[in-house]
């Protein structure tokens, strides 16, 4: 009878421990949405000059549809992705706080080929 109680207590402790691990994992899961709260991207405009060639012009063989685009919405930058311009993220970067050269690039259709370049830009321009 005593062994039965010990086994029940042991199993109950294992269940509590497992539930604790699950809760910790859920609470510490990376929040992709908070990382994406950055910038909307604007549609590419072909033939526009003054854009940063490294981040805005497609390279040979590059699929233009798989790009991140910055767009100004309600005075803030937002990010869109792909050919259908699917919403990607909001940012807290105010358009009027950017320097003139950056504003012109955004008006001309600033875009990025990968997340790393996008996040580097957003990091450099967030307050």
Order of helices and strands: HHEHEEEHEH
Which secondary-structure class do the elements indicate? alpha+beta
User: Quick one: biggest sheet?
Assistant: 5 strands, antiparallel
Mean of the pLDDT scores? Answer: 76
Q: Categorize the overall geometry.
A: rod-shaped
Discrete helix count = 5
> How many β strands by DSSP?
5
Low-confidence residue ranges: 32-62
Written description of the protein model:
The protein is an alpha+beta fold. It folds into two domains: 1-30; 33-125, no CATH class. Helix content is 43%, strand content 20%. It has five helices and five strands. The protein has helices spanning 2-27, 32-36, 53-56, 100-107, 115-125, and strands spanning 40-41, 68-73, 76-81, 86-94, 111-112. The protein starts with a helix and ends with a helix.
Short description:
By secondary structure, the chain is α+β, with helices and mostly antiparallel strands. Helices cover 43% and strands 20% of the residues. InterPro entries: BofC_C.
Provide key terms for this protein.
five-stranded antiparallel sheet, rod-shaped, 2 domains, 127 residues, alpha+beta, 5 strands
Secondary structure layout plus pairing:
Layout: H1 2-27, H2 32-36, E1 40-41, H3 53-56, E2 68-73, E3 76-81, E4 86-94, H4 100-107, E5 111-112, H5 115-125
Antiparallel strand pairs: 1-2, 2-3, 2-5, 3-4
